[in-house]
Amino acid sequence: MTLLFCVMAFACLAVSMERHQQTLFARVLDAGKTRGFRIAGWCGLVLALRYIVDERGWALGLVGYSGCTSLAAGLVFGALILYERYKPA
Known about the structure:
The chain is mostly helical.
């Protein structure tokens, strides 16, 4: 569940960047939507941290959170690279 929260959060954070907006939507979103994606991304990361710390405690929770954020960031980054390479014309 933590990994799912982290992947969604990093996807929102990626969409909040102008470069990725150009790649995904072929335009830059307005400031309100960009801020909404950024807030949703950070809230998702906080929820993931809360979930895993409640599940495993602080000691193992932070270690698990670190691993999940690293894996999630890699998955989102890889997906963006693949999309850009194979995007429809």
